[in-house]
Amino acid sequence: MYADAASGMVAGMIDLSKLGMVDIIRLQNMLQQELTRRFERPMTMAFSDIVASTPYFARFGDAAGRQLQQLHLDLLHESLAAEGGRIIDTAGDGAFLAFPSADAAIAALIAFETAISRENAARARDHQLQVRIGVHHGPVLADGDVVSGDAVNLCARVASAARPGEMRLTRDVFQELSPVHRMKCRALEPVDLKGVGRQVELLAFEWRDQTVFPTRVRFEETQEEFELPAQDIVSFGRLREHEGTSANDVVLAPSDPAHARQISRWHFELRRFADGYRLRTVSDGVTEVDGVLVSKGVEVAVRPGATIRVARVLTLVLVSPQRVIPDDSAATRLV
Predict the structure, then answer these.
(1) How far is it, in rounded angstroms, from Cα 79 to Cα 233?
(2) What is the pLDDT of residue 15?
(3) 202-205 and 332-334: which strand pairing?
(4) How far apart are CA 166 and CA 132, in angstroms?
(5) Which of 199, 197, 205, 198 is nearest to 173 (CA)?
């Protein structure tokens, strides 16, 4: 009867109302096996989400919000084609992407992030595009158009766990990468993701060349270090808040409060370009880079190791510290 049921179903003539429970269970198993055989395959996938799109719409209106969304999609289309990637689906401020391999995904996403920096160089700070990206490799059901499965849901959760400007990968992706890309991964603490019944081991992919782009700033007077936000303009100044919002990404506070007024409310910016950061002064206050005075409005290139003297009362050093590189086992090492 099982064979007859299967044959009848293929012919489109099966009467499900006449099947017993055992026959239905057998039929389910047969369909699951056929579905897996024909449509399940491993895939490298990614989600890209625009950061803070809801407040952007609220502040600047629907037209500006839609323009930002369109820029997001246009830059994705521009960056994916060369690596064989494609956009599977879009929803509001997010896009679901598929790639032929893990290395292709990373190459395309590096091109995407680079394109964002290029566009942001000509956009006001409030209108800059910033995304968070999650990448995963796992089995999916795909028929050429639709891609679905638990791996897709996990990938979306990885993206939601990423910080603004960050690209996070699962270990499944890491194991598919070539050595040159593995060396740019930094191990993170395992995290709990919504809807996932286990802790997930994630890595941050450092798509910027850390010999060119510093990742942290150290205050020499206190030896405190702070991570630089992964955005295309990073502002430095003494003002912490302005009209209820953060005024500066890095607040400059000298160890002696009596010297605070010597630092401008907005003192200087780091602007990210394809070839590295450029420091641009926005204040008449004194700013020196490696002992050279930088006048207001002037831009100078800065690299890891650059020393920035602010108002002659505060000294900052741009650094790219050692990072933890995971290997194929649970062990890690420093480079």
Answers:
(1) 22
(2) 76
(3) unpaired
(4) 5
(5) 205
Residue type, 285: G
* Whole-structure pTM value: 0.76
User: What is the maximum alpha-carbon separation in the chain?
Assistant: 90
User: Which amino acid is present at 247?
Assistant: A
Burial grade of 103 (CB within 10 A; 0-12, 13-18, 19 or more): middle
Question: From CA 102, how far away is CA 100, in angstroms rounded?
Answer: 7
* Residue 208, C-beta contacts closer than 8 angstroms, at least 6 positions apart: 215
| CB neighbours of residue 140 within 10 Å | 23
Q: Which pLDDT tens digit goes with each residue over 5-35?
A: 444 444 456 777 777 777 777 777 776 776 5
Residue 194: which of 156, 223, 235, 238 has the closest Cα? 156
| pLDDT given for residue 34 in this prediction | 65
State the Cα–Cα distance between residues 328 and 182, nearest whole angstrom: 10
- How many whole angstroms separate alpha carbon 173 and alpha carbon 175? 5
pLDDT at residue 13 in the model: 61
pLDDT tens-digit readout, 238-279: 999 988 888 999 999 988 888 889 999 999 999 988 788 999
Domains of the chain in sequence order: 2-38 (no CATH), 40-210+325-334 (3.30.70.1230), 216-319 (2.60.200.20)
Pairing of strands 299-302, 276-281: antiparallel
